[in-house]
Amino acid sequence: MKQLKRRQELWLGLLGVLLAFGVCEAVGRAGLVRRSYLSPASEVLVRAVELAGDGAFLDGVGATLRAWALGLGLAVAIAVPLGLLLGSVPVVDSAVRVIVEFLRPLPSVALIPLVSLLLGTGTETKVALITYASVWPVLFNTVYGLGETDPLAKDTLRAFGFGRLSVLLRVELPGTAPFIAAGIRISAAIALILAVATELLSGFGEGLGIFIAQAGLATDGTRDVLAGVVWAGALGLVINGVLMWGERRLFPWTPERRATAGRRTGT
Questions:
Q1: Nearest of 79, 207, 69 to residue 132 by alpha carbon
Q2: Which pLDDT belongs to residue 82?
Q3: How far is CA 142 from CA 82, 102, 135, in A?
């Protein structure tokens, strides 16, 4: 039953992609929108495939992915311990809550001039902005996950003489892990957006965003701009798919899977 549902979702998703492709192709071919603004979808797709053989373009994509991976990794390294601390020690949570709520709404792109001034115009700026934007989903999912851990399991360990650290490592962290994974998946998308957007807005360095920005300045660069956007969307789709697969493999005890198992066994 579950495999049938996934197969249906796959086919419906493919149908949606084909419909969107058909609409864009028809609009471009019919001349409803000037080709300088919207190239036919088939031409954009062909150009996107051609870029796969362009070494300079792939080097730029690699630079974007390196900044993405480093920024996301730093965000996880910061957010998980901090989230565990805030979720475990109410006094600390109350002390820093105002600061966290003040910083969270600040848009990362608005910090580009300041961060560029402090760190220069290199990869460090991209990584800093990506890290800043990616911290929040992981941090709040970690805090929320701690609040959802089984209190009976924690009380049982305490009754047997286990200390605070043992309870954290044996119960709270495993119970919070699926929430952390979900936060990482959300942050992965945000990190990719920031990596490309920072390159677009800053105009320095190398990367997919630089390619799109330079193509936008060309006389007839619409097709390259859209091809670059297709690459960005494809990267995001692949990253999200890999992380979702990893969640299903690593955390089969999540609520959705428990409900499915319960229906199968009749419990």
A1: 79
A2: 92
A3: 9, 19, 11
Report the alpha-carbon distance of residue 222 to residue 38 in Å, rounded: 7
Q: Where do we find the tokens 């990253």?
A: 239
What's the half-sphere exposure (Cβ side, CA atoms, 13 Å) at 134?
34
Return the DSSP state at 172.
I
Measured distance CA(72)–CA(101) in Å, rounded: 21
**Which contacts (CB < 8 Å, 24+ apart) does range 101-109 have?**
104/136, 108/132, 108/133, 108/194, 108/198, 109/194, 109/197, 109/198, 109/201
Domains, the chain, ordered by start: 54-265 (1.10.3720.10)
Helix H, strand E, coil C: the string for 68-136 is HHHHHHHHHHHHHHHHHHHHHCHHHHHHHHHHHHHHCCCCHHHHHHHHHHHHCCCHHHHHHHHHHHHHH
Query: Full-prediction pTM beyond 0.90?
Result: no
Closest residue by Cα to residue 59 from 193, 211, 189: 211
CA–CA gap between residue 221 and residue 225 (Å, rounded) = 6
User: Nearest-CA neighbor of 61 among 227, 219, 202, 176?
Assistant: 227
Instruction: Tell me the per-residue pLDDT of 135-184, one tens digit each, with 9 for 90 and over.
Output: 999 999 999 888 887 777 777 777 777 777 777 777 878 888 899 999 99
Tokens read off for 68 = 């993405």
Residue whose structure tokens are 């319960």: 262
- Asked if residues 201 and 109 have their Cβ atoms less than 8 Å apart, the reply is yes
Tokens of 267: 């419990």
d(CA 45, CA 97): 47
